[in-house]
Each structure stands twice: as structure tokens, then as C-alpha cells.
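Researcher: Last one for today. Full complex below.
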Amino acid sequence: MKTRGIIVRNFSHYYGQVRSLNNINLDVYRHEILGIIGPAKSGKSTFLACLNRLNDLIPGSRVEGKIEVDGQDIYGPDVDVVALRRKLGIVFATPVPLPMTIYENVVFGLRLLGNDERRELDRIVEDSLEKAGLWNEVKDRLHTSALKLSGGQQQRLCLARVLALKPEYILLDEPTSGLDPISTMKIEESLRQLKKDYTIILVTNNTKQAARVADRTAFFLMGELVEIDETHVIFTRPMDKRTEAYLEGKFG
Amino acid sequence: MSLRLKLKPKTEQKIIQVILYSFTSIAVLVLVFILVVILKNGLPQLSLEFLTRNPVDMGREGGILSTIVATIFLTLIALLVATPLGVGTAIFLTEYTTESWITRVIRFGAECLAGIPSIIFGLFGFILFVNKLKFGWSMLSGGLTLAFMVLPTIIRTSEEAIKAVPEAYRLVSFSLGSTRWQMVTRVVLPSALPGIVTGIILSVGRSIGETAAVIFTAGSALRLPTSVFSSARTMSVHFYIMAKEGISMPKAYGTAAVLVISILLINVTTYYLMEKYIRRKK
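Model: Here's the assembly. Have a good evening.
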């Protein structure tokens, strides 16, 4: 039986006067990979940022409606935003390792919590890098700068950094858009493995990627959710003409 | 224009290069000139005794120990006050507030402060610290005055350094569950450190070299200072008095040599350390 993790109801988001998301309604089930596809500026990234309230950081950002994560209204009055962001870890389109060692990047979030116990950190570093598929490539140079890694390695490091926080949800914002096919394959492989323990929302402008890894897929267009369904349904018999047109590459 | 047409690009390139090289070398030449004059006249004066003995007979005899001690403490007081104030202001302006008329007023105020002649700072320090707060002519009054004098420099350089930290670092820090303060202390400040330190070093240089503001506030007593409330004479003030009153030119040059060498040493060491710090991060 599928349990609902995230419930989004009548949710809209504004940057100043500009509406970037319009009346979104959708559910995210636990332990699924939900793909979100759509052309640029369709509100996909904004939607992700709203889920862990990173949108708070943008001046003029305003929301209407409701998002519940595990039963908690995340825009409610006494939400611990810091805890929320740990629970919904995010990986951005551009890999941004912090200017410190690989090791320190992975344990960054743990140290914020005051966790400095060496042996435990060592264990978490190995475990997180393993899950992100990076351990074997970096295990001999954990204490060298993360900035020296290749783009693909950096992105897997960013994933490991999120995993180290033991989130419930992983939000990925076009995580492979700047990567080569091999790096992309490695990340997709990690995602399939991670599904067992996490719920994943994958924003991608590469529809084939959604087809390859997502259980369900949502199509966003100009701030609206056009449709959401099982991935094979979306790709074979979409309900909406616009979805079909987008998937056929008539616009992008 | 006609001249340009006659020249071959290669020749033009050569000429420009020569002109620019000479401009650049003027700056270096001035430095070399100052160093040669100061060191040629000052180095013969230097000895262990010069550095470890107090001035005797107004400075005609003896060394400059008390002025070295005064310079170090005055500068330390100035930095201990100005660094937290300046870096704090810079953090406030960049991370804790959005651009508004308030930030513009603060920034404009700091810029104006930077343009005020040091002797006016001396007067301000004299009125506020020496008289009103009754610190008297003392290292405390002098140090505090210097602190406010270098404050704009520290605010300015720190702000620039903090602004240069990529926005993405902040976003990543927040996304990994940091509070704003954690983001500032763990991500922004470490990245901005080289720039901030540069501002502090500039301030050290200005503090060590300042005379006008110091005479008004710290006085010019030649005794070895015993507390922050002692009046004291810094090396710069000592040099000024020795030269101006014609007490002893050789001793004045000796003092100048110590001043110049210490500033050079501070610069070289810091740049070396910063270089190492930056390399470790890359």
C-alpha cells in the first residue's frame, strides 16, 4: 500500500507580483521517484525550493495554499525550517562543493549539529560516499580539496553531502544537466538504489531521464501542473494534448 | 591619428609597452628610493642595544624600546576594537539586511569617515577619550582613536571580501540545514578571510605610521608604558619629534628603519600565510 509523504493542495507561489506556480495539487508517495518534467521557466525548480522553504531566501517570495510533509504543514507557524531542510535534502543543477576537503563537505551538515565524533563521522562519510557511488574514486584522497574533483564527481559529492544528513526526501534539481553521459548514468544508478530508503523528487529537463528512472512523472507548464501519472502512462498515452506535444518535442 | 597610421602594429605595441613599463617602474622606484635612504641612514644605528634600551636624554642617547612597546600596544588596542566592529558591520551590511536607505547611509558614513584627515581624528579622540571619558593622554585613548580611524578601511575591505563569496555557497549552506549565523561563520567568513586580513594589515600599517592622531591622544611620554592608561610615544611620533626638534637625526633614522622593516616584515609574513591558506583550500 502506498503511503502519501507529501501532500500539496491549492498551492501557488509568487515572486513579487509574478505568479510562478499556480494552484498546484499533487501527492508524493513514500519510496517513489517522482519525475518532474517541463520546459524552462515552468516552475519546476521553484516547486522544489518551496518544498524545503529555500524560497524563503528570495526577497519578495510569497506562497498561498498548503504543503504537508509527513502530516506537518510546512508553512505553519511553528515549523523548524532548519530541521525541514535536513529532512528534504536538495541537490542543485550546478554542483557546488564548498571550498573545503571532500571529507569536510560530507560532514558539513553533521558538524552544524555539533556532531564531531571522529569515528562516527568516518563511518557516515564512507557510507554516504558509497551510496552516492563515489567512495572508490575518492577514498584515498578524502582530505584533499573537493574543488579538484571532476564535475560528475562533484555532483555525486553533493548527493553524498545530502545523504549524510539522513534525509527522508531527496530533491534533485536537474542534477545531471551539466554532466557527461557516463556521470549521468552513475547518478541515475545511485537514484535507483536510493529509492529503497528515500523518497526522491527528480526535476529534469531531459524527458528521457524521467522515462528511465521515474515511477511517476508530473508535467509542469508555465507554473501549472498539467498532469501527473505513472511514467509509462505519461509517455505512452498522456491525457493532455500539451503533454503529448512536449514529449514529441514540438516545444521545449 | 596620423601618427598611429604610420606605425606598424608591432612598433606601436613596443612603444606602449615601454611607456607602461616606465609608469609601473616609477611606483617601484619610489619604494626603492625610500628604502635606500632610510636603510642607508638608519641601519648603522641599529643594534641590540638600540632595540632593548629606553631613550635617554630626550632620545639623544639610548635606544627606542619604550616606543616599540607603545607602538605594539597602541596598534593592538586599535585592532582589537576595530576588527570586531568593522567585520561585524560588514556582516550586518551584507548578510543581515537588504539594501535600503539605511545601508546606504551606513556605507556613506563609513566612506566619509575614511576621508577625514587624521588630525581631526586626533582632535575627536582628544575631546572624547582624553577629556570627556577622562582616559587622559594614554595608550587607551590613542588606541581607540586609531580604531575609529581605521574602521572604514576594515568595513570596506571586509564587505568587498564577503560580497565576493559566491551566492551558491550560501544557498548550499542553508540547504544543508545551517542557520544564518552558521552560514556566516562556517562558509562565508573562511572564504572571505584573505580579503578581511588584507584590510586588517592595511590598518596595521596606518596605525603604526600615524602621528597626528596619536600625539593628540596618547601624548609623547618617553617612559616605558606600564598600563593602558600610561601616556606613551610611538615610533612614528618619536621619529617626528626627533627630526622636527633636531634632537638627533641619526637616532631618528634608526627609528625610521625599525618602522619600515617591521611593516615590511608584517606584510611579507601575512601574504605568505594567506598564500598558504588559500592554497590549502583549493
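Chain A has one domain: 31-52+80-247. The domain at 31-52+80-247 of chain A is CATH 3.40.50.300 (Rossmann fold).
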